[in-house]
Design brief:
The chain is of the alpha+beta class. 38% of the residues lie in helices and 22% in strands. Helix 1 packs antiparallel against helix 5 and helix 5 runs parallel beside helix 9.
């Protein structure tokens, strides 16, 4: 059997990469408007970064990470990054960015890896666009991240967006709520799924994030986190909602929204695109004021989000919102004869030096065969040069869209083509 790509991965061929470039360029343009700068971190990190950063009781750590020995130290392992925030915070600390600027605004686009069940818009190697805003606890920063997500999706043409927001509390108010959760679920422990049973005393908040229908039913009537927030969390969440309202952004309160990572504090949000159905979430994030400290850094409040690129592409495809790929004007040089081939190569190279898309066929095929290839690649202009034309210092320039042609001197053909292409 021929070797095939790993399950849950995909080949991004030239025919689809144009759509990726379109989205990535839109992201980079918008992030620049908001003052975010791009960072790129390694695709694998020490496993301990994700154990401490994401949380040992999360689905990602317990079931989905790709880890392997480092080969350098005994009992040390690396993990292909399953998400981007922990890596960004590690880079923030290792490069001592906290000592260079009071507020840091970063974004990233890159591959992530999770051993998850492949389904529509979900892969084992997938790509995320994420934003991290470090160094401020201002509620306006939370609203800024949400606004950026929504503006991006609208710029891409998506409508029917729903923003769900919640506050997941902080280390001050969560311990008391944790005890209430344990008291609520303890009588139902044997009915919970195996994973939630293990979560009950370690991190019962994760039970609210369980996707098992049985656990969701058992959670009916659970005490609401919003009723157990401390004054600081209540005040912060109140201001976040005020900023969103001031920006004209509509949102829905979801008291059960907790997100899937342990580092979230206070604000949590999710952006859903309703037409995607059960897999409607296209972006999610929130505040993580304790993560930098958890990774041995100074107290640094922060907020951010991540967006699945494949899920976004799926949404745009379903709605027919991906633009038609524009064909760049190109040139094909037909060479007939050995000497003509060398001159054709010189012309092709000169055009490329002028950043004009140009190709030639160098194996001496027939005129008919070369013209057939020029049609196949949708060349707009064809330069024909044979030994006779070479002796006269001229070439034939054919316009493929009209089939008209003219004679141009060898000395002028490069400038002539460059003017035609650049002028369009």
């Amino acid at each position: 059997m021929a070797i095939q790509k790993p399950r849950g991965t995909q080949d991004l061929l030239p025919s689809v990469l144009g759509n990726w470039y379109y989205i990535e360029n839109t992201i980079r343009r918008l992030c620049k408007t908001y003052g975010f700068e791009e960072v790129r971190t390694p695709m694998f990190e020490e496993t301990g970064l994700f154990l401490r950063g994401i949380g040992e009781t999360t689905d990602i750590v317990q079931k989905e990470m790709y880890s392997f020995p480092t080969g350098d130290k005994k009992d040390q392992s690396y993990t292909l990054r399953p998400e981007g925030t922990a890596s960004a915070v590690r880079a923030y600390l290792e490069n001592k960015i906290y000592g260079q600027e009071s507020i840091t605004k970063w974004f990233y686009i890159g591959p992530m890896f999770r051993h998850d069940k492949p389904q529509a818009g979900r892969y084992r190697q997938f790509h995320q666009f994420g934003v991290e805003l470090l160094g401020t606890q201002a509620p306006s920063a939370d609203a800024e991240c949400i606004s950026l997500v929504l503006q991006l999706l609208r710029d891409l043409g998506l409508k029917d967006l729903n923003v769900e927001v919640n506050s997941v509390g902080c280390p001050t108010c969560r311990p008391a709520y944790r005890e209430k959760l344990i008291a609520f679920f303890e009588p139902k422990k044997e009915e919970l799924c195996e994973l939630c049973q293990s979560r009950l005393y370690k991190n019962p908040l994760r039970i609210l994030d369980c996707k098992e229908e049985k656990c969701q039913q058992l959670a009916v009537g659970v005490p609401e986190l919003s009723d157990n927030l401390c004054e600081e969390c209540q005040d912060h969440f109140h201001h976040v909602k005020e900023y969103l309202t001031a920006a004209g952004e509509k949102f829905t309160l979801n008291p059960r929204l907790v997100r899937g990572l342990d580092y979230y504090t206070k604000t949590a949000f999710e952006v859903q695109y309703t037409p995607l159905g059960s897999q409607s979430a296209v972006a999610g994030g929130g505040r993580y004021d304790g993560l930098v400290e958890e990774l041995d850094g100074p107290h640094t409040p922060a907020v951010g989000f991540a967006m699945g690129m494949e899920r976004l592409l799926l949404a745009l495809e379903k709605q027919g919102l991906l633009p038609e790929q524009q064909q760049e004007d190109s040139v094909f040089v037909v060479a007939l004869g050995e000497m003509a081939q060398k001159e054709a190569f010189r012309i092709t190279n000169a055009l490329r030096n002028a950043y004009v898309k140009a190709e030639m066929e160098g194996s001496g095929k027939s005129m008919k065969s070369q013209m057939k290839y020029a049609n196949k690649i949708n060349a707009k202009y064809v330069i024909i040069i044979g030994d006779n034309e070479l002796a006269e210092g001229k070439v034939i320039l054919k316009y493929m869209d009209t089939s008209e042609q003219e004679t141009v001197s060898l000395a002028e053909i490069t400038n002539r083509i460059t003017e035609l292409v650049k002028g369009n």
